[in-house]
From TrEMBL:
Protein name (record): Histone acetyltransferase Rv0428c-like SH3 domain-containing protein
Domain Histone acetyltransferase Rv0428c-like SH3, first and last residues per copy: 11-61
Taxonomy, superkingdom: Bacteria
Protein's organism: Arthrobacter mobilis
Pfam families assigned: SH3_Rv0428c
Amino acid sequence: MRPSALLCDLPPGTRVVVRYRIEGGFTDALGELVHAGPADCVVRTRRGDVTVPLAQVVAAKQVPPAPPRRAAGRH
């Protein structure tokens, strides 16, 4: 299955990692799938929503939920 087809088949709210082309190489978007349409997908990362053109996607997969955050200040 093509990565773009996988993204379109997953329901919103699924945690995903999407690798896509950028100028000079590749980058990843890790987070919650907000939307996947015929031209692009939106992934909600820790830093905000990332819109990824499906034509630039080279790999995508569903990933498990994020681990719980650790309490700050404990050593």
